Amino acid sequence: MIPFSILDLSPIARGATAADALRNTRDLAQHAERWGYHRYWLAEHHNMPGIASAATAVVIGHVAAGTSTIRVGSGGVMLPNHAPLLIAEQFGTLASLFPGRIDLGLGRAPGSDQSTALALNRDPYSAGEAFPQQLTELQGYFAPRQPGQRVQAVPGAGLDVPIWLLGSSLFSARLAAERGLPFAFAAHFAPADLLEAIALYRARFQPSRHLQQPRVMVGVNVLAAESDAAARRLFTSQQQAFANLIRGRPSQVPPPIDDIDAYWSTAEKAGAERMLGFAVVGSPATVEQGLRERIAMTRADEVILTGHVYDHADRLRSYEIVSDIHRSLGKEVA
């Protein structure tokens, strides 16, 4: 049965605080564990009023400490923002505290605007060129210490924390294939190159000690509710958030509205729909059909679900509905 996982950005609802968002994140993770989700990943973003997971490794520790079996990791850590040694030490510490449960998903985007990237001491123009070298350095810190090695990650050396490469274009697909690493595509916000990237990754995959066969995870925006109309209304929170992002005014997650077309311009609607074109929104039956279609289209080995929902209870209910769908798919396989 194909695993279902969750990608959480710790959304901060309008009028709430980061502390509220982080409590909700841990609560959702605890529910997700009971509902049978495979992984729970957190994403690194900076200078975003509606996202509380900037200190991603810290939030991973918060979630892992509140759960016992679900895998917890990053979806992802933006490696060019950090020294590879620092990430090796952070995730080596997490893997030491929660053995067998920690994943390290890596991206090469800044997870922020250009000004914030510069504030993170990052050269925004070098990410694409430097990322493969940074990855090599990071993998070296997770390998067993070699004779004469002067710099090592403590903790980290010899722990071999599982690494995933994340991407929304062909660059990371190609690199993941060359390195024999699992690949996760961000179709939840950039679906345009999805099928081409997956095909490239599978065609060029080189087996490694980490992975013998290509493994593809696909990110999907999902919002399930009791009816199509109810789900579409809840989804307007995310549509407003994307419109605000297009305007260059990122915001806390707004409450749903009745008429999204009254909120955005034609150009903003087109831009948001391009980014959200792979989303699945609706009743249990609608969401089940949509997930079946996307799994068949991509032949994904794993699906990771995400979505900004204003009310935490509605977010819990959405993932609970999807967990029921997952169980029904599993019965068919059995």
Structure description:
The chain is α/β, with parallel strands linked by helices. The chain is built from eleven helices and nine strands. It has helices at residues 18-35, 56-65, 84-97, 114-119, 127-142, 170-179, 194-204, 228-246, 266-275, 284-298, 312-333; strands at 4-8, 39-42, 71-78, 102-107, 163-167, 183-185, 216-224, 280-282, 302-306. The chain has an eight-stranded parallel beta barrel, surrounded by eight helices. The protein is globular. The mean pLDDT is 94.
Mean pLDDT across all amino acids: 94
Instruction: Report low-confidence residues grouped into runs of 5 or more.
Output: none
Structural class: alpha/beta
State the CATH topology of the largest domain.
TIM Barrel
What is the architecture of the largest domain at the second tier of CATH? Answer: Alpha-Beta Barrel
- The CATH superfamily of the largest domain turns out to be Luciferase-like domain
The proportion of residues in beta strands is: 5-15%
Strand order of the largest sheet: 1-2-3-4-5-6-7-9
Number of domains: 2
Q: Secondary-structure element order, as H and E?
A: EHEHEHEHHEHEHEHHEHEH
